[in-house]
Amino acid sequence: MFMIEILKSVLFGIVEGITEWLPISSTGHMILLNEFVTLDVSPEFWEMFLVVIQLGAIMAVVVLFWNKIFPFDLGRKRKKSIIKTDIFVMWFKILIACIPAMIYGIFLDDIIEPYLYNATTVAIMLILFGAAFIIIENWNKGKTPKVNSLAALTCKDALIIGLFQLIAAIFPGTSRSGATIVGALLIGVSRVIAAEFTFFLAIPVMFGASLLKLVKFGFHFTMTEASLLIVGMVVAFAVSMGVISFLMGYIKKHDFKVFGWYRIVLGIVVLVYFYLIAA
What does the alpha-carbon distance between residue 160 and residue 180 come to, in Å, rounded to a whole number? Predict the structure, then answer.
């Protein structure tokens, strides 16, 4: 029985690792997967697991982009560390982008979540933001991006992207990465920079969200619960390493429309299943 639950956790880790970075909604896919493959855990643990497993995926960003996010140059040949001012400035902009999500997470998360975390909301948001990707990419076709580097992002740009991230925090199925990328593309950010800023923005957001969920759940894990969480995080980390590398190579030559069509098709399938087949 224990090994069956571990295998389920592996499956959730694979889905999390793939969908966290592709703009197709990791939480949405996890909620949908839970309709068919359910962990034998308490509702409180599942709610926490759904968020904290994302830490494994986040660590992949830390490893892959360490030189772009660590603000100190610790070269062996130098006697003193050198501060990378541009990275400190980037982190300041990231903190600005985090403000909307922080306010929501502290004051509104427990109030809104019970009403919106369901298959219907997921399906609707999959379709709406899928259409948004297609429309925005068509609108941007032939245009030169205004922002082609992280340094060129303004504090105003960061706040706008943070507001789009808030949509994802409220409505499962939106996709945190999808919402922030849509917001970035709308204000003229290039695809590569939009993706990178989204990756970096995920670090404080998901660490904060995970800490909040852990505090609410408490740190009293059974051996089974601890094993399920650790396995899920490790698998999510390993899968994310490959998915992030794939996505960064893909968007240098392609747009995001394929993900938009995927979201629309999946959203329709979900609605058909829950309202015609499973009803």
Answer: 9
Q: What's the number of domains the chain is made of?
A: 1
Residue 76 counted as domain residue: no
- Residue 82 one-letter amino acid: I
pLDDT of residue 79: 59
Place of tokens 């949509």: 167
- Phi-psi category of 143—alpha, beta or left, where left has phi over 0 and alpha has psi -120 to 50? beta
pLDDT for res 271: 87
Residue 197, amino acid: F
Task: Answer whether residue 69 shows pLDDT above 80.
Answer: yes
Domain range for 257: 2-69+82-277
Q: Averaged over 8-25, what is the pLDDT?
A: 93
**Helix, strand, or coil (residue 76):** coil
For the entire predicted model, the pTM comes to: 0.86
In a domain, 221, yes or no: yes
Q: Provide the 10 A C-beta neighbour count for residue 91.
A: 15
DSSP H/E element including 72: strand 72-73
Distance CA 12, CA 25 (A): 13
